Amino acid sequence: MVWWVVIVLAAVYLTLRMVQMTYWFVTRFLLAPAIPWPLKAVTLLAMAGMALGARLWWKRRFGKPRASRPQA
After folding, report:
1. CA gap 50, 53 in Å, rounded
2. Judging by beta carbons within 10 Å of its beta carbon (0-12, 13-18, 19+), is residue 8 exposed, middle or buried?
């Protein structure tokens, strides 16, 4: 029972931290007028590339099992 409490508290903490980091990224980076737009665009493209790469890796690593080759 104690582990369930720890798991729930950890999930709440991680959710709050994710909200805080997202809020900071949007307000202090994307909406900051001092940061040039090309830098913002490159950052967003890099993040999208990392997300796509992680998705492709995940599908390759944990996707459908391959048919095994017959043993000779």
Report:
1. 5
2. exposed
Contact at 8 Å (CB) between 43 and 29? yes
- Tokens 């508290």, residue located: 9
What would the pLDDT profile of 33-65 be if each residue is shown by its tens digit? 999 999 999 999 999 999 999 999 999 999 877
What whole-number distance in Å separates Cα of residue 39 and Cα of residue 47?
Answer: 12
DSSP symbol at 30? I
Q: Which string of DSSP letters, residue by residue, matches 43-60?
A: HHHHHHHHHHHHHHHHHH
Q: How far apart are alpha carbons 48 and 54 in whole angstroms?
A: 10
**3-class DSSP assignment, residue 12:** helix
